[in-house]
Amino acid sequence: MTELAPQATRPSASRPLRQRAWQQAEETACRLFHTALHLKARDMTARTALRPALVLAPHADDETLGCGGLIALKRQAGTPVTVLMATDGSASHRYERTLQTSPDKLAALRETETRRACRRLGLDANSLYFLGFQDGSLEASERRLSAAILSSVAQMQPQEIYVCARSDGHPDHQALARAARQAVAACKEPVPVLYEYPVWSYDFRSWRRPGSNTAGFLHGTAAMLRAALAWRMFAVGIADLRVQKAHALAAHRSQLGLYDAEPHWSGLPERFLWHFHTRHELFRRIDRKELTP
């Protein structure tokens, strides 16, 4: 996963205590948002297990974070799943000092990690595709990306498509979500059902706006509340698959701060990973009227 840019974070508080208090408030808001989505979600575990699916991921590890349990559930039932990886993953730690890992080497590493993770989820090697678009610049390739998705749909005929949420604060996530909507809008019958899986939507930076901590927090919580009320949510129970999902996520060592070649690199924080280790995965269904701007 490519991190949100540092400039997207909250302004520095004048005192460390205040900064920690704001951080705690934002983390609490994200957990409440997650809980609210879960409470309103309709269970679709049994129904979705038998429906062939196409999973679209902007960066390596998003497929496991957002859909790892879903993929494992479908593969356990013998249901075909295809994963399309949009970017090459070469910019995941571009804001951190690099000792010996070039962008090309990082891209190769992340592909290896993704193959290992998907294998642990039960995915066939020939069901994982890497489009290789430049990490961090997906918006510039949005039209080609939409065409690639549409081609995959025509070839694989999935009944469901899963893509990262358009509300995620990362521009690559937003570009992929838009491209998926454009592709589904252009699909011929039968049109697959499109679902979005939140990733960075569970990070408060996706919701706040520049300004003071107070104004940013109020704006962010109001936006989260509107989303929680408006989104049409579905849940997939993965209680029996959590160990398998965790094993798959562990394959993404470079994203967890466990990459030996760069021991100082940060990893995804536990407070963020909490959202992906629960007994369920949450998906927002995108209705046909939402497919076009």
Taking the alpha carbons of the first and last residues, their distance comes to: 27 Å
Beta-strand proportion? 5-15%
Provide the succession of SSEs.
Answer: HEHEHEHEHEHEHEHHE
Instruction: Give the strand line-up of the largest sheet.
Output: 1-7-8-6-5-2-3-4
Q: Fraction of residues in helices?
A: 40-55%
Unreliable stretches, pLDDT < 50, 5 or more residues? 6-13
Shape: globular
SS class: alpha/beta
- By DSSP (H or I, 4+ residues per run), the number of helices equals 9
Strand count, sense and closure of the main sheet?
Answer: 8 strands, mixed
Note down, in words, how this protein is organized:
This protein has 293 residues and is an alpha/beta fold. Helix content is 42%, strand content 14%. An eight-stranded mixed beta sheet has the order 1-7-8-6-5-2-3-4, with helices on both faces. Helix 3 (62-76) crosses helix 8 and helix 5 (142-156) packs across helix 6 (171-185). Residues 6-13 have low confidence and may be disordered.
List the keywords.
globular, 8 strands, eight-stranded mixed beta sheet, 293 residues, alpha/beta, 14% strand
Note the topology.
Layout: H1 16-40, E1 42-43, H2 45-48, E2 53-57, H3 62-76, E3 81-87, H4 103-120, E4 128-133, H5 142-156, E5 160-164, H6 171-185, E6 193-197, H7 213-230, E7 233-237, H8 242-249, H9 270-273, E8 280-286
Parallel strand pairs: 1-7, 2-3, 2-5, 3-4, 5-6
Antiparallel strand pairs: 6-8, 7-8
Helix pairs in contact: 1-7, 3-8, 4-8, 5-6
